[in-house]
Specification:
Oligomer: single chain
Shape: globular
Number of domains: 1
Radius of gyration: 14 Å
Structural class: alpha+beta
Protein name: Fis family transcriptional regulator
Length: about 130
């Protein structure tokens, strides 16, 4: 489905905000590689899902053990707030995943893997962009 001009502008702003959050964490959190988002803009911001991708499952566990997950989520939330997007529940909105798990369960097909994480959304997913 094609985005309206207003929705496209919002999505571009989300991309910019998430790019800042991504760059803030790339060299601070071991194993973190990239992040992506998707949303159903007819149910926004409740449908916004941000997936932060690490190299391995162990990298995610180490990040959590070092208490870096909350700071990472807060930075994403802060960057989104700067563009007027209020995320009410970061634990529902922000997910951690790994290249290792995607390879193991979906043969590296992120488009298939990300489809699974949209169960709380309405079925019309308008956008999937990598940062």
């Amino acid at each position: 489905m094609k985005l309206t001009k207003t929705t496209q502008k919002l999505d571009n702003n989300i991309c910019k905000a998430l790019t800042i959050a991504c760059e803030n964490s790339l060299h601070k959190i071991a194993g973190f590689s990239w992040l992506t988002h998707r949303a159903n803009y007819t149910n926004f911001p409740a449908s916004l899902i941000v997936t932060c991708v690490f190299e391995t499952e162990n990298d995610i566990e180490e990040m959590k053990a070092k208490n870096l997950a909350t700071a990472f989520q807060q930075d994403i939330q802060k960057q989104l707030l700067k563009i007027g997007v209020i995320v009410k529940n970061v634990n529902q909105c922000i997910h951690f995943d790994s290249e290792e798990a995607c390879e193991k369960h979906h043969q590296g097909q992120w488009s298939e893997r990300l489809k699974l994480k949209t169960t709380k959304q309405k079925p019309n997913i308008n956008n999937r962009r990598m940062h």
